[in-house]
Write a structure and sequence with these properties.
The protein is mainly beta. It has strands spanning 15-19, 25-29. The chain has one domain. It has a two-stranded antiparallel sheet with strand order 1-2.
Length: 59
């Protein structure tokens, strides 16, 4: 199954990909845990985000 592009989330250090038992893939924003401004599972593609920080070594 091909994963649709997530915009900035694909390259953000605060993003974690989470898979379901049914094969769906979601992007979990780890900033949500400490800042309610951020959605736990943001709608993608994310085109702008005040919490974005480029991840190193993330493809």
């Amino acid at each position: 199954m091909e994963i649709p592009p997530g915009g900035l989330c694909d390259h953000c250090q605060h993003c974690k990909r989470v898979g379901s038992a049914r094969g769906s893939v979601f992007r979990l924003c780890l900033l949500h845990e400490r800042d309610p401004r951020f959605a736990k599972y943001p709608r993608v593609p994310v085109l702008s985000c005040p919490g974005y920080q480029a991840a190193t070594g993330k493809a």
